[in-house]
Amino acid sequence: MRLLNFDLDTLRTFATGIDLGSYAKAAAQLGRSTSAVSAQLKKLEDQAGAVLFRKAGRGLALTDAGTTLLAYARRLLDINDEAALALRSASLAGEVRLGLQEDVGEALLAHVLGQFIRSHPNARIEVCVARSAELQRRVAAGQLDLAIAWDAGRGGLAGEKLATLPLHWIGPAGADPLIAAGDGPLPLVLLEAPCALRDIAADAMERAGIRWRCALSSASLSALWAASAAGLGMTIRTRIGLPSTLALLDPVAGRLPALPSICLTMHRLAGDENALSTLLAELLRQAVRELAGPVRQQLCTVQPVPECQT
């Protein structure tokens, strides 16, 4: 049987549309017309010999075949991009000092830094995993070249916004926090001050008129996860890095106040022209887009381009 060769440009369009939630946006980002994107998607379905999309309201959702192909598309594109980076800059050498916020650190360390080191064997990376305020301070002081941190829009160091993510109340699955608290104040587990998410949680409770207390205060995110899983109290974070022992709580069912979104931001050392840090920043942007928008067939819908009839 003759094996087919998928076109990488077409796979990139396919994956980009999912990441952006719209194939019209994908067309603009990739510099193609909407009719060209529609033709690419039709060609991809013809090559795959399967229907990749189904109607979902006014948008499109992936079928089982589409979800399977997307996983392989991401792997093929990762290998292609890694090869391109290696050939383009194999001779680059030097050091990059990178700071990562703890929520995203584990995922980015495994995915981005492994690829970067393989592509640049003469490069050295010094990684600092710390809280957002500390990372911003170190970039401003010239101690870090790059940092990925939360930005709550409260006068911190300016940076490049990579993603905006909703905050969630988090606790053990099936928990009813208000009933569990009884007549006492609602227990929360929070990072030590200063912490933007701690302030957001406190503000939300006070606006809703809900009494609360801090059941645990820690500098460690893992301590928050463990304390919340043990039932000491709720916390608030994004869904990134959420342990399987915890769940997103329904604010309506739990009679909890609504929470805002928070931005994930890249900060760079002023005047930094290091080619290695520029390349690493490219990889981080792409990885954050993938991390911020994981594809889950039951939830993910994308807006088709006008010509797309898939």
Automatic annotation (TrEMBL):
<dbReference type="InterPro" id="IPR005119">
    <property type="entry name" value="LysR_subst-bd"/>
</dbReference>
<dbReference type="InterPro" id="IPR036390">
    <property type="entry name" value="WH_DNA-bd_sf"/>
</dbReference>
<dbReference type="Pfam" id="PF03466">
    <property type="entry name" value="LysR_substrate"/>
</dbReference>
<keyword id="KW-0805">Transcription regulation</keyword>
<keyword id="KW-0804">Transcription</keyword>
<keyword id="KW-0238">DNA-binding</keyword>
<dbReference type="InterPro" id="IPR000847">
    <property type="entry name" value="LysR_HTH_N"/>
</dbReference>
<dbReference type="InterPro" id="IPR036388">
    <property type="entry name" value="WH-like_DNA-bd_sf"/>
</dbReference>
<protein>
    <submittedName>
        <fullName>LysR family transcriptional regulator</fullName>
    </submittedName>
</protein>
<dbReference type="InterPro" id="IPR050176">
    <property type="entry name" value="LTTR"/>
</dbReference>
<comment type="similarity">
    <text>Belongs to the LysR transcriptional regulatory family.</text>
</comment>
<feature type="domain" description="HTH lysR-type">
    <location>
        <begin position="6"/>
        <end position="63"/>
    </location>
</feature>
<dbReference type="Pfam" id="PF00126">
    <property type="entry name" value="HTH_1"/>
</dbReference>
